[in-house]
Automatic annotation (TrEMBL):
InterPro entries: AlkB-like_sf, ALKBH7-like
Lineage, broadest ranks: Eukaryota, Metazoa, Chordata, Craniata, Vertebrata
Identification of the protein by name: AlkB homolog 7
Cofactor or coenzyme needed: Fe(2+)
Species in which this protein is naturally found: Neolamprologus brichardi (Fairy cichlid)
Lineage: superkingdom: Eukaryota
GO biological process: DNA damage response; fatty acid metabolic process
Gene Ontology, cellular component aspect: mitochondrial matrix
Length: 230
């Protein structure tokens, strides 16, 4: 049942975003980072956005509406047989159901191969099954770091059905944080320090605000590829 929850190791108390009033967007550093001008990231300082920005990618519109529909056709029947789980206070995830899948239909397999070739080096050994999390509209993922025992240096996820905010907070320095706007049909990639030194979380609907702009949460399905520890 709890297929991959074993990979979600440490649960952290939500960190306060100290010094939040002036969110600095990557746009504010556009003189330094022309290529990342449009990166949907805001963080605690321009330095952090620049430093961590190289280890975090968000590719807007990575899949088309038709491709999103193909995932839904493949995943929804199985997901609908499960109930959303809300009541395990110690879980890293609240209001979710999940599955993992090794074999995919041709359309989804092709998209996943695009994700793999975008996110991972060719020599990278990938975790066989792809992890799927279906978050209810009221669901959210608490701050955690994926298990270093089971997962390698890179995490790549597609977001289906809803926009959401992923927040990264430095484990030993909670004043350092980065918010990512994960738009519907985008791909995010976390690498290296962003994956090992920062917790990540998906904000609940009530807290889902990006750079001062409200981002309503709907039901959200994520499709996550990981590599194996080196
Ligand atoms: C996880 C996780 C993020 C997402 O399953 O470890 O952080 O996009 N998921 O669902
Ligand atoms: Mn995770």
């Amino acid at each position: 049942m709890k297929v991959l929850l074993a990979v979600l190791k440490q649960i952290h108390k939500p960190a306060l975003c100290t010094g939040n009033p002036r969110c600095l967007s990557s746009g504010a550093t556009s003189g330094l980072l022309p290529l990342r001008d449009e990166a949907p990231m805001v963080g605690s300082s321009p330095e952090l956005v620049q430093k961590l920005g190289s280890q975090v990618e968000v590719r807007t519109d990575f899949i088309t509406e038709a491709e999103e529909a193909a995932f839904l056709r493949e995943l929804d029947p199985g997901l609908k047989k499960k109930r959303y789980e809300f009541d395990h206070w110690d879980d890293a995830i609240h209001g979710y159901r999940e599955t993992e899948r090794l074999r995919w239909g041709a359309v989804c397999e092709e998209i996943l191969n695009r994700v793999r070739s975008t996110a991972f080096p060719e020599c990278s050994q990938l975790l066989g099954p792809v992890h799927v999390i279906d978050l209810d509209k009221t669901g959210y993922i608490k701050p955690h770091i994926d298990s270093v025992k089971f997962c390698g240096s890179t995490i790549a996820g597609l977001s289906l059905l809803s926009d959401s905010i992923m927040r990264l907070v430095k484990e030993d320095t909670p004043s350092e944080w980065l918010d990512l706007l994960l738009s519907r049909r985008s791909l995010y990639i976390l690498r290296d320090q962003a994956r090992y030194k920062f917790t990540h979380e998906i904000l609940k609907n009530e807290e889902s605000v990006f750079n001062g702009q409200r981002v309503p949460r709907q039901r959200r399905i994520s499709v996550i590829c990981r590599n194996l520890p080196g």
